[in-house]
Amino acid sequence: MGQARLVPIDGAELQRRARALERALGDGGAQLPQADVERARAITTKVRERSALTGGRTIVALAGATGSGKSSLFNAIVGAPVAAIGVLRPTTSTPTAASWGSAPVGDLLDWLGVGQRHTVIGPDEAGQPLDGLVLLDLPDLDSRDIGHHEEAERILALVDVFVWVTDPQKYADARLHDDYIAALATHDAVTVVVLNQLDRLSPAQLDECRADLSRLLARDGLTTVQVLATSARTGAGVDELRHRLATAVAGANAARARLAADVASVAGALAVGLGPGEPAASPATEHELVDALCVAVGVPTVTRAVERDYIHAAIERTGWPFTRWVRALRPNPLRRLRLDESRVAPDVTDADVREIVGRSSLPPPTPSARAAVSLATRRVADQSSEQLPPAWADAVADAARPDRADLADALDRAVMTTSLRFRTPLWWRVLGALQAILAAVAVVGLVWLAVLGAFGWLRLPQPSTPSLAAVPVPTLMVGAGLLLGILLALLSRWWARVGARRRAASASRRLRESVTGVAATHVFAPVEAVLARHARVRSDLATARGTGP
């Protein structure tokens, strides 16, 4: 390798990162760049397949442009004329493999799709321990035959170590640098760069070429990779290259390092399509949405009906007994909305009854109310997707925009199932009992006076009638019963209005809680689900890159 440190990574850690990448792909869905998603899926597949085939083997590929001397260098490393060398260019049309050691390598080469194979048993001629090395000579990257460079790119996607071979004439080739070296700059730990044909340069020219090539590599992102100078014709520098390859084989970590680099690279590309965090709508905006939904579903209408219903019931229970029957002729405010609680049996909740009864008779929302709901949901979506990429922002907007019919049904159901039953106030019972007593007193006094009148009309002896302060008791009973009853009825009306406002406020709170639950289910929860997916994708991609927990 170059000077880039090959960080050891065990199989369990590699699998953990690969699984994190797979989870990110599953959670990311359509919000991730699809081209990168396809590449990531291919990489996770490669991790599974390559991990099953590792077997201590390290795959090294010699890649370069036409005329760079790849095949000659391949033969020099192998120590035998395995790769064909010719005058015509390009010569290498299919990859050729040389493997060191006696361990079976057929399954690995079948996976690579390499047909031309050569086995080297024992150490190479320089004594380097290359047992476990699989060396590939690839077709030329700049071949005019599309099939040649497509085959080279296919193999490059599968190997463990890259050896980029160039020469004094083509070391600055834009295609080699832009399409290949720069594209794999994150794989610097498994990258070797070779300047071949040093025998064609003077020492000064060699230093100049190596310095210029190092500058180009730094521009590509390979700041720690040293340039090896070799000559396949004279053998200069070949031993140093063999030593680098022997180091890679001895570490037995290049395959996992390459796979980890692939996972990190594609995870980094996917992370570009994420935001820096998960924003959230402000409480004020959420409050605005609940307000708009309350108006749309008719909570103010229900609240006013509760207030009128309280007054209606209070007067019916505490009003002047002789005029209460008039109240029965007036329509019940809640019954008109199908929210009446008087029909509910003591052991059955309002919610149970309304579940069966169905929809309420609340008026439909006005156009302005619907517009207010739309505006509020849009503000929730805008605040919840701030700084998110367009794909995620669109997902948040879709989540914050529920189906209008479903939302209307849920809101109406929330109102229908909200209990509007309250404990009967004690003062109703007290004043009702007092009114009954006063009415009874007035009736007894009236009957007493009627009996006295009958005695007088029949000219019968008048029974003695007690008096109080010169006022006959029957007359006092009728006057006190009627007058006090009327005054008590007027007082109860005032108390009823006070209690009605309190009961309406309590009903409003209950209804608002129900509407808030609908907003949470149909707006806030779907938005939070999208943001939770975004957070999981961020975390999993950080794990896949090796920067997360």
The CATH class of the largest domain is identified as: Alpha Beta
How many separate domains?
Answer: 2
Biggest sheet architecture: 7 strands, mixed
The dominant shape is: rod-shaped
> SSE string, helix = H, strand = E?
HHEHEHEEHEHEHEHHHHHHHHHHHEEH
Identify low-pLDDT runs: 86-90, 342-348, 353-357
Number of strands: 9
The gyration radius over C-alpha positions equals: 45 Å
Average per-residue pLDDT, rounded, comes to 83
- Structural class call reads alpha/beta
- State the CATH architecture of the largest domain: 3-Layer(aba) Sandwich
Lateral arrangement of strands in the main beta sheet:
3-2-4-1-5-6-7
State the distance separating the first and last CA atoms.
28 Å
CATH fold assignment of the largest domain: Rossmann fold
Tally of contiguous helical segments: 19
CATH H-level superfamily title of the largest domain: P-loop containing nucleotide triphosphate hydrolases
What percent strand? Answer: 5-15%
Share in helix: 55-70%
Structural account:
With 549 residues, this protein is of the alpha/beta class. The protein contains 19 helices and nine strands. The protein has helices at residues 11-28, 34-53, 70-78, 106-112, 146-156, 174-181, 203-220, 238-251, 254-271, 283-297, 299-318, 324-328, 333-336, 350-357, 367-384, 390-399, 404-416, 426-457, 473-545, and strands spanning 58-64, 96-100, 116-120, 133-137, 161-166, 191-195, 227-229, 467-468, 471-472.
